[in-house]
Write a structure and sequence with these properties.
Elements (H helix, E strand, L loop, with lengths): L1 E8 L2 H16 L5 E8 L2 E8 L2 H22 L2
Antiparallel strand pairs: 1-3, 2-3
Helix pairs in contact: 1-2
Amino acid sequence: MKKATFTFELDEKTSEIVAKSLLPESKRIVPRTKVEIKNNKGKLVLNIMADDVSALRAGINSYLRWIKTGIDMTKI
């Protein structure tokens, strides 16, 4: 199994908003990918595990884009 971990240092409010917005997607059953999102006082940790590199890459691209969008939206 392939794994990628990303840690984002954000303010607590932004971290909470982004984590809550990603929670429904992370609970979805995807055949080759599993995602865990942890939020602790402004530290957002994203763990993506996948059966193969292609699935890992797809998961990384999706979640990083969604996290960026969530962070950008909190600034508006």
